[in-house]
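Structure tokens please, single chain.
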Amino acid sequence: MTGISAQQAPRDRAVRWWLLSIAALIAIMVLVGGATRLTESGLSIVEWKPVTGTLPPLNQAQWTAAFEAYKTIPQYRELIAGMNLAEFKTFF
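Here you go.
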């Protein structure tokens, strides 16, 4: 019986540290996300499209529409006004 509990203790300790580490990482992610949200310093997503938004615009008209939409957000006006379409494509 003693051999089993001696082997079990290191495993239990490892699992405990793993669970605590995961909980700490989740807490850090929540704090960083909250700070990002409160300071409004997140990514400048003009439209949230989680499935179709993974592809970049595929033709010139789509690129122009995306760039025009991007020009309406505060980040463009306050930080990078004057960016042209070619620079936007690399930024995108």
